[in-house]
Amino acid sequence: MSEIMNFLKLNAKIFRNAQVYLDRILKKYELSSGTFRYLFILEMNEGISQNKLSRAVGNDKAMSSRTVMKLMESGYIRKEEDKKDARGCNLYLTDKAREIIPKLHEELEAFENLITIDLTESEKSIVVNSLFKVFQNTQKAIEKGGVEIGE
């Protein structure tokens, strides 16, 4: 198998394992690997619009709409009409969300420690920086519209 195929396969497996683990530990909060990020972004940006939240998370508007609805039903976020634009709504954390967010941070820190237990601080930094560069390059490739084989 080529190096790129190994890289892609390994990346996909890491992502899937992380999803499974996070889904297990977040279940007690009625959250999942796909929903907790919304709370963390709102924690730092209360009152943002759903569109801005969607862009920050990196999901399309339809997925974000479903997730926001689920978080509202679970009592974690609330919508308020935008005072500057009656067509828009702003999103806020509820007291229930504020109560669990420190616990979520603890759970994620424990997970990070678990998966990086054999890495030095320098190795962790190299991994994060390298993956960020790969991410930026994939973004550029998407924006460019792909490359023809042989170019």
Automatic annotation (TrEMBL):
<dbReference type="Pfam" id="PF01047">
    <property type="entry name" value="MarR"/>
</dbReference>
<dbReference type="GO" id="GO:0003677">
    <property type="term" value="F:DNA binding"/>
</dbReference>
<dbReference type="InterPro" id="IPR036390">
    <property type="entry name" value="WH_DNA-bd_sf"/>
</dbReference>
<keyword id="KW-0804">Transcription</keyword>
<protein>
    <submittedName>
        <fullName>DNA-binding transcriptional regulator, MarR family</fullName>
    </submittedName>
</protein>
<keyword id="KW-0805">Transcription regulation</keyword>
<feature type="domain" description="HTH marR-type">
    <location>
        <begin position="1"/>
        <end position="136"/>
    </location>
</feature>
<dbReference type="InterPro" id="IPR036388">
    <property type="entry name" value="WH-like_DNA-bd_sf"/>
</dbReference>
<dbReference type="InterPro" id="IPR000835">
    <property type="entry name" value="HTH_MarR-typ"/>
</dbReference>
<dbReference type="GO" id="GO:0003700">
    <property type="term" value="F:DNA-binding transcription factor activity"/>
</dbReference>
<keyword id="KW-0238">DNA-binding</keyword>
